[in-house]
Amino acid sequence: MLRLQTRAVMLEATQAVELEPGVVLPPGYYTGAETRTGLATVSGDVSWTKPEYKIELTKDQLTSIGARVSPNLTSMKVDVTKFVRSGELAVT
Predict the structure, then answer these.
(1) pLDDT in tens, 33-63
(2) What whole-number distance in Å separates Cα of residue 53 and Cα of residue 82?
(3) N or C: which end of the chain has fewer CB within 10 A?
(4) pLDDT tier at 85 (50, 70, 90 boundaries)?
(5) DSSP category for residue 26
(6) CA 54 to CA 41: how far, in whole Å?
(7) Which among 77, 75, 72, 73 is positioned nearest to 52, based on CA atoms?
(8) DSSP labels for 27-79?
(9) What is the pLDDT of residue 27?
(10) Is the pTM of this model over 0.70?
(11) What ranges do the domains of the chain cover?
(12) Nearest in space to 64 (alpha carbons), one of 26, 21, 16
């Protein structure tokens, strides 16, 4: 049986984080989500994957950090897992 576990987290950028070339997240706190997937083992335990992290940014936020957005976009979830794992973003 597959399980999905999600919880709200705060992510802190103590310095600017380049999400992709030309798109820079400024220092600050960001509301995000931590998600793990679990799979029940034969013994009945649950084996969990490493957590993944996403933040949701509005169209205005995306524009202000240098992202190109389509006119009908209102917000976008951005996968920031690699920045959490590298220490550029901290879960607080």
Answers:
(1) 999 999 988 888 999 999 999 999 999 999 9
(2) 9
(3) N
(4) very high
(5) P
(6) 27
(7) 77
(8) SEEEEEEEEEEEEE-TTS-EEEPPPEEEEEEEHHHHHHTT----TT--EEEEE
(9) 97
(10) yes
(11) 2-91
(12) 26
